[in-house]
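S., here's the first fold you wanted:
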Amino acid sequence: MKKIITKLAAAAALTMALAAPAMATPSTQIWIPSTDIQAYKTGHLGIDNYIRTTSHDGGNNFYDIGLTAGVLPFEKIQAEIGIDYLDGGINSTADKSPFYFNGKIGTPEDAWFKGSPAIAGGLYNAGTKLGVTTQNIAYGLVAKTLPVIGRLSVGGYHGSKTALGSGQNNGVLASWDRTMSEISDKLWMAVDYQSGNSYMGALNFGVSWAFSKNVSVIFGYDIYNNTDISTGGGGQNTFTTQLDINFP
């Protein structure tokens, strides 16, 4: 179940100044991209908040407002593009260049033959400040929904060595998500993971409730692989709320 129906450092010194994760999000799970793609001629507004669970110099809070639109009129091959405004509230170098871009193309499950997996690839966190916000994370994912178990996704990513850190700019993406129809078709749960010790690396848990066909909220928790912001980590863990609105 896609989030839209329910919802980075140059050098160590710069990472300390940013002290927050930056996610210019395509259609996602909790944190990582998903194989879901916004439908043609529809839009999605996402308002995400990442609030630190401790105030002990573990990084600042972060806020993301993003728009995503479906752009291909085909059933078997779909695509979306998006733009995000990201703000860490500390007037850092990154905050002064707050716009990030993303794009994705892929094919849904069963598109080519019965049982074929969903496949998607794209680019996100494409900023405008060279070496600072130009994380340019390219990724690919394969996903399959299994009876009872839910959907399993796995893939990998590769980003800018300058922005994410040498040796920390590539890794694994993985997730599980499921609509909990035994309880309610409005309830969705997910766990996702991004490897690496940059501030993009994290293990994330979340639940979502759909208040209507077009409005839902995700409540999640983010555990960063590296909490030491002085070494390029994501800082202390965050609680996230993600409001998702689809239109028309």
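And the second, which I think is the more interesting of the pair:
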Amino acid sequence: MTKRWIFASALALLLIAQVEAKNTRALCGGFMPPNDLRIPVGATFMGELTGVTEKQFNDILDRMEKLYRSEIEDERKASFVVERKWVGDIVNAYATQTDGGKTWSIHMFGGLARAQGMTEDGFAAVACHEVGHHLGGAPKFSDTGKGSPIWGTVEGEADYYAMLKCLRRYFERDDNEKILAAMKLDPRSVKSCNEQFTNRQDALICMRAAEAGIVLGKVLQKLGGDRPVSLGTPDASKANGIYELHPRAQCRLDTYYSASVCVVPVWERRSDADVKSGACHDKKLTARGLRPRCWYNPRT
């Protein structure tokens, strides 16, 4: 693990200070652990601009805001706020609930959007991860010790939700055949998606989500200094129970892939109490889509 991945307490304190003033119920640590990385506007790699453009950044967040406003505001009775911080060079994103739980926000930074290797679909998946902290359901972060449970879905489950529910909705009206024709797809995901889904559109969305997961896995690996990741090298480790914080890059890629190939319909909602609701959980029927044991290994 490199210096660049070490927790930066100053940044953590800054983020907490920014939201405590708004009566925040809880703060999730971010898409990545707090870090000291910075990617300013105009950053280049080998002479080329990196990541997504400002227009793509805003288009993605416009679409995400439209996609979830009704569910959060009409059904959950909370305001949905998408904070756009394109100029911000922080390499992260995070979610908050403020005003006594009446305002649900996702905070998106240009620093992460500009990361080397980031794509439009990859950044959409980051936004989906942050939405997942609000809507991803169980398992939730543990009790604070003060009698009130933290509202947020744990990191691994937010990753799972991003591909299982959010990106499927985000992609459903696109010409996915045309979009995928311009991509170089991993043959393992193409094979699995075609085997899992008999409906062509569902199979295409599965492939596109898996590709977004590969993008994020590689971005996380580069930023965090982890070993190279791929669909062919799954994380063989087993968590002791449910690991609530950020898994390593390979484990997160495994989660993205499992969620992409899970056959549970997108319209089956997640529950804040039942980990089985709206997710793959049966080893016989939905084994390919199970949450990876590298972060999800409950004792019962």
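Why I say that: The longest helix spans residues 200-224. The chain has one domain: 23-297.

Talk tomorrow,
H.
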